[in-house]
Write a structure and sequence with these properties.
Length: 125
Amino acid sequence: MIRLALPVAAALVCIAAAPAPKEPPPSAAKQCFFANSVNGFTNAGKNRIHVHTGPRDVYLFEVAACPNINFSQRLALQPIGGGSICSGIDVTLIVPNIAGAQKCPVRMIRKLTPEEVSAMRSRRR
C-alpha cells in the first residue's frame, strides 16, 4: 500500500506545481457587437469597409467579392442566427445595386485598435 501511495503523492505534487493555463490577453479575446449598434460605415479599400458601432469602436470588414461595396452609400447587415456578430460567418452584407440588392459574404471581421481608429480619423481630416 505504501509503495502505491508514494507514486500517487508524487504525481499530485507535480500536478499542483504545474503552471495554470494562461488566459488569452484581452486583445485576443473575441470582440463582438450587435447589428443594431451600427451607426455608419466608410470605405476602407477594395472589398473592405470600416463599420462604426460607437464613438471609438470600428470594425474592419473584408468581403469575398462585392463589386458595388466601395461605391455604395447604403448597406445593411443581415445577422445569421440573430445573435451577436463576432466573425464573418455571423453576418452577410446586403448592398443595393441596379438589380435590387447583392448579398456579399464576409470573409473577416477585426476590431481596430484605438491607435488604428485615431490614424483613420486623422487621415479623413
